[in-house]
Amino acid sequence: MIEERFDAIVVGAGMAGNAAALTLARKGLKVLQLERGEYSGSKNVQGAILYSDMLEKLVPDFREDAPLERHLVEQRFWMMDDNSHTGLHYRSDEFNEERPNRYTIIRAQFDKWFSKKVQEAGAVVLCETTVLELLQDAYGKVIGVRTDRKNGQVGADVVVLAEGVSGLLGTRAGLRKTPDKNNVALAVKEMHFLPQEILEARFNLRGDEGAVIEAVGTISQGMTGMGFIYTNKESISLGIGCLVADFEKTGQTPYGLLEKFKQHPSVAALIAGSEVKEYAAHLIPEGGFKAIPQLYGDGWVVVGDAAQLNNAVHREGSNLAMTSGRLAAEAIFQIKSRRDPMTKENLALYKKMLDESFVMKDLKKYRDMPDLLHIQAQNFFLTYPQLVSKAMTNFLRVDGTTKREKEKTTFRSFLAARSLTGLVGDAVRLARAWR
Amino acid sequence: MHIVVCMKQVPDSAQIRVHPVTNTIMRQGVPTIINPYDLFAIEEALRLRQQFGGEVTILTMGPPSAEDSLRKALSFGANRAVLLTDRFFAGADTLATTYALATAIRKIGVEFGSPNIVFTGKQTIDGDTAQVGPGVAKRLGLMQLTYVSHIDKVDLEAGTIDVERRSEGGVQKLRSKMPCLISILEGVNEMRIGSLSDALAAARATIIKWSAQDAGVEDITKCGLRGSPTIVKRVFAPKPRAEKAEFIELGDKPGDAFVDELFKRRPKLEAELGQLTRGY
Q1: Do B17 and A2 touch (CB under 8 A)?
Q2: A350 shares its domain with A378
Q3: How many angstroms separate the CA atoms of B82 and B59, rounded?
């Protein structure tokens, strides 16, 4: 172990890790942050959407120099069948505000910027340094980490695990279980480059305005999943993700789904003529409240994706990551300033703060949603989208059939597919899970 | 022994896009890296230091953001890093670059001791000229050993160095006086991973930043765009060849039949070859 000791070691330099390291360093703690990538963000492949509120709590004037792509003025939800989509679009000029609420970002660039702030705050950030294992004493207390560098062991009072969704270190140290395949989605994404004018014309955008499309339906082949299209300045992030367990069950391939999604008539026109520059895949925690592992122990806390903190319904992940990182840091600072040891009892403060925040309250609200969507995937992702599409065609096509007859046909199709009990049951279950 | 390594921060060519209209490189948002060829120079310098003791100084000229690459070089274990940064240096071609680097190396000599060896990579991946190393050597009056594939022996007392140099058609074994400039070939060593202590030291190190004035530049008109006679007239992407290879079926016929067939299809080629071989 090298001689120098730190107050805290943060493993990982994504949203959660950067938020934790920044907060700790600003409070005057001696912080070492370790990142395996070449720089913070170099390994990151998220979509991605940034919510300003949580970042403002960390870097209030981030709009001045953060690499932001577009602020969102339009959100589209699509329910797709093979040849159609039924959409709900919401666009508001009110989103063109002075301090917009949501932005698209490219994480590789954004995280680099975020990391600069962490370094300016005084944390020592070491990249290209992989943490291989947690060092524990005879009682299991985490006392530091071992890296892949020569003489690479370093000690600290507390280790903040911001290592990402797979949670390898925590698992290796026996602090938690490997994430369940029913609780993680595998998402694949491509970056499609288009000249700015063409992109803006296709999505009806002016200046820095941006749009987001989120799509469910037959594109996921009956699996629990979702497709997405985000507009960046001169590129489109386009991808699709489904539960790992579903991929295993169906034998579908992620790239196969992505190809189909891209070929869908509603999507193909949006990306026509684009140049694909990146293909990436990543796991996303989708288990919600019930999948959250133990969040703290003797000498360690876990934050962000590693703690499975992701709101699958609202597609919020990075802001939960930032908030959990910040709260963990604040808890550590409080314990430190009382000169108390970083024991499990004391670090329980982090969990308490998290419980009182929107993070746990939101996740708790939707605690039954993952089960509902995962177990009834066929209905929600295949049957209903097809039925809705049929209903819309029926409604719009003018062919001399009386309107009454049309309504009957539509209702009958729903009954035939799901039965009255099924329909009412689904509605009740959905309402309960949403409550 | 004091070794100076000239290094350049370059855009990661694997992630570069070319502007469809102007054909210029779009640097915006492209991550930067240490010129990969320079890594071999840094590693070779560190190995010599291991063997003979002394210090390794890394020198680069570039924008303030080049600090990142210097810090990385320090994490391998180099002793110090000097960043030549000044708006007067912007837009330099190889002539102006060698002027600035040579001036800075002289200054490094004054501040930290005269270098025995100046290392450079074979060339950069963005400019591809391989002119800067020799140019610096010329300006400083150093012996120049280019395309060095192996350092055989260093005799500090006699002040000589024996190297292998890859040249067309073979390998030259050369002995040179020091101080000298060595441009090292790729693949001659394998870059180390710096120790945790080196990485920590690098993260906290103060990068020495010199403006043109700090470096002791006397004639500012020899720097940057003003000191660069090179003019880019046009940038274009070469068109792929439209001609396709033809297959000549010969069966069991001997080689002469092939030549006959070739000349039959390309009568111009026969005339040209005839012209060339006249008198033999």
Answers
A1: no
A2: no
A3: 5
Residue A375: per-residue pLDDT? 75
pLDDT at site B276: 80
Q: For chains A and B, count residue pairs whose Cβ atoms are closer than 8 Å.
A: 48
Best mutation target among A120, A125, A126 (most B Cβ atoms within 10 Å) is A126
A162 lies in the same domain as A111: yes
The whole-angstrom distance between B29's CA and the closest CA on chain A is 7
Residues of B in contact with A42 (CB under 8 A): 31
Tell me if A42 and B199 make a contact (CB, 8 A cut-off). no
Count of domains in chain B? 2
Q: Is residue A88 part of a domain?
A: no
Considering the domain boundaries, does residue A345 fall inside one? yes
Domain count, chain A: 3
Assess whether A193 and A280 both reside in one domain.
yes
DSSP A292: -
- Determine whether the interchain pair B29/A39 forms a contact, defined as Cβ–Cβ distance below 8 Å: no
ipTM score of the complex?
0.81
B187 touches chain A (CB under 8 A): no
Minimum distance, in Å, between the CA of residue B7 and any CA atom of chain A? 18
- For A220, the 3-state DSSP assignment is helix
Task: Kindly tell me if the per-residue pLDDT of A145 is higher than 80.
Answer: yes
Residues A19 and A166 in one domain: yes
- Residue B31 forms contact with A (CB below 8 Å): yes
CA distance A56 to chain B (A): 24
In this complex, do B194 and A149 lie within 8 Å of one another by their Cβ atoms?
yes
pLDDT interval class at A424 (50, 70, 90): confident
> A237: domain range?
184-285
Asked whether residue A78 is assigned to any structural domain, the reply reads: no
Burial B41-54 (b: 16+ CB within 10 A, else e): bbbbbbebbeeeeb
A332 and A376 housed in the same domain: no
b/e burial code for range A98-137 (CB count within 10 A of at least 16 → b): eebebbbbbbbbbbbbbbbbbbebebbbbbbbebeebbbe
CA distance A259 to chain B (A): 23
Does B16 contact chain A (CB < 8 Å)?
no
For residue range B94-117, list pLDDT tens digits in order. Answer: 999 999 999 999 999 999 999 999
Q: Which of A42, A150, A277 sits opposite B196 (nearest CB)?
A: A150
CA atoms within 13 Å, Cβ hemisphere of B84: 32
Sign of the C-alpha dihedral computed for residues A397, A402, A406 and A409 taken in this order: negative
What would the DSSP string read from start to end of A224-241?
Answer: SEEEEEEE-SSEEEEEEE
Give the best residue of B196, B204, B207 to mutate against chain A (max A CB count within 10 A): B196
**B114: CB partners within 8 A, 6+ apart:** B2, B179
Residue B232 lies in a domain: no
Residue A26 belongs to a domain with what CATH number?
3.50.50.60
CB contact under 8 Å between B193 and A147, yes or no, is no
What distance in Å separates the CA atoms of residue B89 and residue B97, rounded to the nearest whole number? 8
Q: Which residues in chain A are closer than 8 Å to B33, comparing Cβ atoms?
A: 38
Specify whether B211 is located in the same domain as B280: no
B256 is in which domain, residue-wise? 239-280
Closest CA to A307 of A329, A327, A326, A291: A291
